[in-house]
Structure formats: C-alpha cells, structure tokens
Design a protein that fits this description.
With 596 residues, the chain is an alpha+beta fold. It is 68% helix and 8% strand. The strands form 3 sheets. Strands 4-3-2-1-5 form a 5-stranded antiparallel beta sheet.
C-alpha cells in the first residue's frame, strides 16, 4: 500500500478503531475455538499452494489501495456468519448416525478450511495497514498468541487422518470389482484432504512470518510429517515404477491379455496421483526453506514430463551421478556377459566381412568370363550388391546374437527409408535413370557419346551419374536423369563407320580421270574396308566446281585416321595428275553503252 494512501485513510481508521478492534478480537477468539477443533486442510476443492498464492495476490490488488475499517468490519461480519453456520453443523454432528458421520465431518472440515482462508484474507488486509495501526496490531497479537491452538489442532487432525488413510489402504487388499473402485476413490479423497491440511499449515506459518512472529514449534512438528510423507511417496513411486516396467514387458510379449492392460492402466493412474502429491510436497518443503533436491530427482526420473520448476543445478548433478552409479553397477554385474557378447558380435562381423569379399571376387570372375557380354555398370552393380547383401545379413545376425530385437529396427528403417526417399526425390530419379541405362545399355565405358549437350569418352558409370572426358581432356559429370530424358548419341556403338568426304574439280577437268584417281586412292589405303564397298560418285554441279562424294567404310577406331589420310592423299594426287581444285569463282560481265 502506498504511503499517500495510508495518509488518506488514516482519519477514518482512527475514528472507528475501537469498534473494529472489538469485533476482530471477538471474531478471532470464536474462530480459534471452532477451527482448532475441526480440520481446515483438505477436500474436494483440491486447493493448491499456487491457488493460495494467486488468491493472496488478488487480495493485495483488490484491497491494498482501499482498505478501511468499514471493509474490515464487513469481512468480520462474513466470518461471524460462517462461524454460526459451523456451530449449527457441530450440533447436528453430535446426534448423527454412524452412517452419516463421515460425510458430516468431511463437510465441517471443508467449511472450516474455507473459514481459515477468509481469516487469511483478513490477515493480509491487516498487513497492508501501517505498522502502528491498532487493527494491524490486534491481528498480529492474535497470530502470535491465539493461533497456536489452531496449528496444534490441525496437526492432530492430520495425524488422525493419516491413520484413516492407512486403514483405508488395508481395506483395498480385501476388495475387488466395484467395491475396490469405490474404496480407491475414498482413499484418494482422504489423500487430498491431508494435502489441504499441509497447505493450510504452511500458509499459517508464512502468515506469522509476515508479521515478524515466530511460529513456535509448528514448523518443527510439521516438517517431520512432510518428510515422512515425501519418503513414503518416493518409495511407492519407485516401487510402482519398477512394477510398471515389468507389466509393460509382459504386455509386449502378450498383447492380447486384457488383464495385464487393466492392471497397467490402474497402476499408471496411481503413479500419476503419487507424482502429483510429491510435487505439492516439494513445493511446501521449499516454502519452508528446505532443500527437496532428492525428491525433485525422483520426480524428474519417474515423470513423463519435465517441469522447469523441478530443474536445478543440484538436481541435475544428482541425476547424472545416479545415472553413472547405475551404469557402473550394471557393468560390474554384467561385465562377463557384455564382454562375451561383444566378442561374439565382432567375430560374426569379421566372418561375414571375409565372406563378402569372397562373394565379390566370385561374382567378378563370373562377370568377366569370356563370352559374357555385360556392361561395366552392370558388373559393378552386381559385385557391390552381392557383397553388400552378405554384410547386411552379417549385421542382422550379429545384432540378434547380442539381444537386440530386429522387428522394431526393421520397422524403424522402413519409416526412415520413406522419409529419406521423400527428401531425396532428385537423387532417386537419378537412380531410376541409372537402372534404365543398366537395363537397356545405350552406351558403355570407353564409348564416344553425345548426351545432354556434352560429348566425349565415357570413363565411369554409376547408378547416379556418368563421367565423360572430352577430347580436350575435360571431365564432365552428368546426372543420369539428364541423360535418360534426352537424346543419346553413341558414336562408337557400331564396329564400322562410313567416312563422308566431298571433293570438287574444275569444270574444265576430265571427270573420268578424277573419278579414277579417287577410286585408286581408296583402294591403296590399307585401313579402308572392302566390305561394305566404298562409294565414289559425281554428286552435284556446284557454282564453282563439280563435286564428288567419297564414302569409304572403316573400323570405328580408324575413322579419324582414314579421314585425314584420304584428304591429304587426294590433294597430292590431284596436283600430280593436273586436276585442279577450283576456288570459288564469280563471272563479272561489264556492259558499256554509248552516249546518246
């Protein structure tokens, strides 16, 4: 509350201070008598420490700036009305039957707890007043002297409630079916009631500290109860966690057993409830200034979700240390088995590695047998695939021998394969194109090809790409999808090729003589094939020359040698025989016209 606001309301407070103090004192004495005997700390509303804190924040925002004696008086009147109602309920409980006794006690405790919350509101409202205000002083006196009985009464009720919970849990072992479900629900309700008691006691301790008061022996009496409950929950959580692991293993082995599923679900629900209660106890211990790191470790280890509030340097270090201790124990207990399985795993892999090499060699020898017309790409693929298949079998057998289940692994590989295939669509397209090239064999290594705008000798082939070396010694790597989707020109696919040449002579030269010279040149060249027969024909009468076509057949590897040899030899023979090869010519006619 701001100091200016205090000054603003000070005159009003002084005017009615005597009246308000009298009401507050009478109210607090009555409240001590009735809440000290009844139980203000549990029930169906499941009030949590967070909710209490939020309620306090709302109260501060709503009252701090406008607290007046009139407001305190109204709050006092409401509390007095609630006390009268509880008095009437107490009178009814005394004459109630055993059948209704538990329900009426539960109702009285619930209403008493709400009454205590309203008292807490009043205390918070008083705490916003100046320290020298009489209303604040009266509330402080009561908290210091009168509420000790309330705390002791709540502790006594909590002890009795703990005994009732123990009796209720003993009954669970003797029941089944619907009776068991009902008994479990009642036990859980009592657990929630006890937690509300703990919350109320911690809130009472905090409120006393706000007024600068000692809580006497209340903290000392409450802390053992909180630690005992935390230890009990921790042991039960760990025990239940181990049982759940065993049930999950059985369910994996016997998926059709409905009884196992029902037992697992019931135990899992109880585990969640215990974890929730332990989380509340951790918060209460922290509010009392204790360090519940050991319980936070259990909460993190057993819970399915990680809460930021449970994290801390000490908790993380403890978790790491615990994990390392478990690893060391496991290694010490299972070292011989682990060593044997490791040696077995390595031995199996070494044997299958040798078998894979042997299979590769045998497949290579089979592919290279004389008369076996296979492309280089097909040979490489067969050798790699056969060796890889052997190694895959080796890994599967080795993993199965060390106790790793192959079913989930294969299923995971299937899912991973689908994801990888979706992400690598272009690469898979190259694989598909490589498979088509492997199947139809449009070219092979050392063939001269023109594909996808590139030309040269094929030097390497794979299922992904083709490596081409141009005649000026450049290396081109072309994806197979580009090649298969375009025109493929294999220049060296045939064993023989025709060399196409054109030679021109002058219009004044002897055509028969020129034709005889050309035929003689072809006959004299040793690399020109006799079959198919070479062709020498007068082809066209061009603008400046009479052109002959010369088409000898040669082996593919001799193509360029024959081309260059014949071109040179024809020029030399034409020169020696007096046959001219004309330049391009144009006749120019000049006409003169006499004047006039």
């Amino acid at each position: 509350m701001k100091s200016t606001d205090v000054q603003k309301f000070a005159p009003h407070i002084e005017e009615r201070s005597t009246f308000v103090i009298a009401i507050v004192r009478a109210l607090l004495v009555s409240l001590m008598l009735y809440t000290g005997l009844s139980a203000p700390a549990y029930g169906a509303d499941k009030i949590t420490p967070d909710q209490v804190a939020k309620m306090s924040d709302r109260l501060q925002a709503d009252i701090a700036d406008r607290i007046t004696p009139e407001q305190v008086a109204k709050m006092s009147d409401r509390l007095q009305a609630d006390i009268v109602s509880i008095q009437m309920l107490d009178a009814l409980i005394e004459g109630a039957s055993d059948h209704d006794m538990q329900s009426l006690l539960y109702r009285r405790d619930d209403r008493s707890f709400k009454l205590l919350l309203n008292l807490d509101k009043l205390a918070q409202a008083a705490s916003t007043l100046p320290e020298d205000n009489e209303v604040r002083a009266s509330v402080a006196i009561f908290l210091g002297e009168g509420l000790g009985g309330v705390g002791k009464g709540v502790l006594q009720r909590t002890s009795k409630l703990t005994a009732r919970i123990a009796e209720q849990r003993v009954m669970l072992t003797e029941l089944s079916g619907a009776d068991l479900v009902v008994a479990e629900a009642k036990a859980e309700s009592l657990e929630n009631l006890r937690m509300r008691y703990y919350v109320a006691l911690v809130t009472l301790i905090e409120r006393r500290k706000e007024f600068g008061l000692s809580d006497g022996t209340l903290s000392g009496d409450l802390l053992p109860m909180l630690y005992l409950q935390a230890e009990t929950l921790t042991g039960r959580i760990k025990y239940t966690g181990g049982a759940l692991d065993e049930l999950n293993e059985r369910i994996v082995e016997d998926t059709q057993n409905a009884d196992l599923a029902v037992a697992r679900n019931g135990m899992a629900r109880q585990q969640e409830l215990d974890l929730a209660h332990l989380e509340k106890l951790i918060d209460l211990l922290a509010r009392l200034g204790e360090n519940p790191a050991v319980y936070k470790e259990v909460l993190l280890a057993q819970s399915h979700s990680i809460k930021v509030s449970a994290l801390g340097a000490g908790v993380l270090v403890s978790l790491l240390q615990s994990g390392w201790d478990n690893v060391k124990i496991a290694i010490a207990d299972n070292a011989p088995d682990i060593l044997f399985k490791l040696l077995l795993f390595i031995s199996i892999l070494l044997v299958f590695r040798y078998l894979a090499r042997l299979v590769r060699k045998l497949v290579k020898l089979a592919c290279e047998r004389p008369g076996n017309d296979m492309s280089t790409l097909l040979k490489d693929v067969l050798i790699s695939v056969c060796g890889g298949v052997v190694m895959v079998f080796g890994y599967l057998i080795a993993l199965s021998q060390v106790g790793i289940s192959l079913g989930p692994m294969l299923a995971g590989l299937g899912v991973a394969g689908f994801v990888i295939g979706f992400a690598l669509q272009d690469t898979l397209g190259n694989f598909a194109a490589g498979g088509m090239i492997l199947l139809y064999r449009p070219y092979d290594v050392d063939d001269f090809v023109e594909v996808a705008g590139a030309s040269g000798l094929v030097k390497k082939m794979s299922l992904v790409s083709t490596t081409i070396t141009t005649f000026d010694n450049q290396t081109l790597v072309v994806p197979n999808s580009k090649i298969w989707g375009d025109v493929i020109k294999n220049v060296t696919a045939q064993k023989v090729r025709r060399v196409d040449l054109v030679f021109g002579i002058s219009y004044t030269d002897d055509i028969a003589k020129a034709e005889s010279v050309l035929a003689s040149v072809l006959e004299e060249h040793e690399k020109v094939l006799s079959t198919p027969e070479a062709l020498v024909k007068l082809h066209e009468l061009a603008d400046s020359s009479v052109n002959f076509i010369v088409r000898p057949w040669v082996r593919t590897e001799d193509y360029w040698g024959v081309y260059w040899d014949i071109t040179r030899e024809v020029k030399m023979r034409f020169d020696s025989e007096g046959i001219s090869i004309p330049f391009p010519q144009r006749d120019v006619h000049v006409y003169s016209q006499s004047p006039g």
